[in-house]
Amino acid sequence: MASSEDARRVLILGGTGEARELAKEVVGAGISVISSLAGRVQRPKLPVGEARIGGFGGIEGLADYLRGQEISAVVDATHPFAATITRNAVAACTATSTPLLRLRRPPWEPGPDDRWHRVPDMASAAEYVGAQGGRILLTTGRQDVGVFAGITDAWFLIRVVDKPTASLPPHAEILSARGPYRYDDESALMRHHRITTLVTKNSGGALTRDKLDAARDLGVEVVVVERPSEPAGVHRVHDVAAALAWVHRLR
Ligand code: NAP
Question: What spacing in Å lies between the alpha carbon of 134 and ligand 1's midpoint?
């Protein structure tokens, strides 16, 4: 337990299960923490402890926030595809000499029986799906739906937390749902809709990985969008325990 004189004040850039887990652990250790959420979903899962919601206003805004709130360290626990905030955190922490840790879960890797088609970005995924056609389960999130809007020769089941505002492909059904998703349900969903292709980001983590196992067992092809690159030179860990150990070492 930290003493009441503990001056550490940690900002967790969140929006992930790992960020919530870390917030709980850091609060439990008696260390002051603020979790930050972008405000993308209507009813976000809130972390334990103090939270703020909304953008900071770019690198400058984040740097001002770090100074104003006397933040002593930042843990960037955002999703592996949240590339802008990750870049901004590096720049703002460099500008303010604030220690920064990147907590990023490991990517998924295919097993011998998986049928994966790996692509570098969402546009390549759309190009591939457009060329192949079929019945597509699209699980890439609301913000990326628009990239698939021009595809006329495929049918889409689009699974999202909140309804997309972008235009949809002409043959599409929206499924509003929020994980975690279990193997049996994923398998039943793919069978019911006669899905031929699953499209996913390589998010990693346990909460949404059952769809990959279900796809493998049903012989469904998986189009896997690989992660964007991140700035070099940042201290990086892959799990909450390692991030917590880093926070404990801060002085
Ligand atoms: P992004 O493209 O990297 O960031 C765009 C802008 O959103 C940032 O410049 C920042 O605005 C604001 N922002 C992002 N994350 C923030 C945070 N945690 N706290 C405060 N402001 C934040 O981000 P994104 O991909 O839209 O992701 C937004 C949030 O959703 C993140 O918290 C991420 O962890 C979570 N999430 C993303 C995905 C995904 O697939 N991208 C999936 C699951 C969860 P300002 O420049 O104004 O500061």
Answer: 32
